[in-house]
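Milestone 3.1: sequence recovery, worked example.
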């Protein structure tokens, strides 16, 4: 699912890490990654507001992923020493809450290379198979 697209996104992340290394705040990587996505013609929206629902009712609260790429891939970036379970839970919950199909969690704070994980929205996959 979105193999080529996620490969391109992670490639852009590697390029940013190669240029900046680790040790910067998340906002620096966010800005660099937006520039890199544009340079590589990766369609993205930065900090777009996504609706959240509860039992079919729209919530006042919204979710703003760091990036939404290719209209379906949520990209969450971190700048921490190591990814933790709460980061993974956040990515999974955002997928479930928004109905988007794929999430990429990318950590620029890890040394000696970026740390990244891929999450597939199992709910969407199950619904698609049932149809």
């Amino acid at each position: 699912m979105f193999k080529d697209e996620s490969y391109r996104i992670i490639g852009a992340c590697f390029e940013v890490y190669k240029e900046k290394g680790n040790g910067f705040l998340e906002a620096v990587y966010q800005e660099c990654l937006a520039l890199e996505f544009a340079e590589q013609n990766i369609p993205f929206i930065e900090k777009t507001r996504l609706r959240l629902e509860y039992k079919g009712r729209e919530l006042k609260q919204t979710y703003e992923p760091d990036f939404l790429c290719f209209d379906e891939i949520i990209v969450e970036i971190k700048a921490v020493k190591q990814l933790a379970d709460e980061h993974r839970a956040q990515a999974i919950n955002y997928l479930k809450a928004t109905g988007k199909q794929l999430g990429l969690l990318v950590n620029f704070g890890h040394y000696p290379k970026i740390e990244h994980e891929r999450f597939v929205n199992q709910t969407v996959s199950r619904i698609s198979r049932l149809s």
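The CA atoms of residues 23 and 70 lie 29 Å apart. The two ends are 17 Å apart (CA to CA).
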